[in-house]
Amino acid sequence: MTDIHPTAIVADGATLGEGVTIGPFCTVGKDVVLGDGVVLQSHVVIDGRTTVGPRTRFFPFAVAACRRRI
């Protein structure tokens, strides 16, 4: 089950795997792919053509904007 906090912004076109958790005040861009079990704790920004592998955890105030796989 995917859990998205009401204050998070997830763009149309973002791909979310199973069990993704997106915390408060996070932003996920339209070209982002989050693998299964990814956790964005709070105030995280993921943008650009970014693919995040399964079970990756981002801590508060992290920013990732890539054109390659993390």
Number of helices: 0
Number of strands: 11
Please tell me the total number of domains.
Answer: 1
Main sheet summary: 4 strands, parallel
Proportion of residues in extended strands: 35-45%
Instruction: Name the average pLDDT.
Output: 94
SSE string, helices as H and strands as E: EEEEEEEEEEE
Give the N-terminus to C-terminus distance in angstroms: 23 Å
Largest beta sheet: strand ordering: 1-4-7-10
Q: Low-confidence segments, ≥5 residues, pLDDT <50?
A: none
- Rg over CA atoms: 10 Å
Protein name: Acyl-[acyl-carrier-protein]--UDP-N-acetylglucosamine O-acyltransferase
Enzyme class: transferase
GO molecular function: acyl-[acyl-carrier-protein]-UDP-N-acetylglucosamine O-acyltransferase activity
EC number: 2.3.1.129
Could you list some keywords that capture this structure?
70 residues, four-stranded parallel beta sheet, 0% helix
Notes on the protein architecture:
- The chain is built from no helices and 11 strands.
- The protein starts with a strand and ends with a strand.
- The strands form 3 sheets. It has a 4-stranded parallel sheet with strand order 1-4-7-10, with no helix packed on it. Strands 2-5-8-11 form a 4-stranded parallel sheet, with no helix packed on it. Strands 3-6-9 form a 3-stranded parallel sheet, with no helix packed on it.
- The protein has one domain (3-63).
- Helix content is 0%, strand content 37%.
- The model has no long low-confidence stretch (mean pLDDT 94).
- It has strands spanning 3-4, 9-10, 15-16, 21-22, 27-28, 33-34, 39-40, 45-48, 51-52, 57-58, 63-66.
- The protein is globular and about 25 Å long.
- By secondary structure, the protein is mostly beta strands.
- This is Acyl-[acyl-carrier-protein]--UDP-N-acetylglucosamine O-acyltransferase.
- Pfam families: Hexapep.
- It comes from Methylobrevis pamukkalensis.
- GO terms for molecular function: acyl-[acyl-carrier-protein]-UDP-N-acetylglucosamine O-acyltransferase activity.
- Keywords: Acyltransferase, Repeat, Transferase.
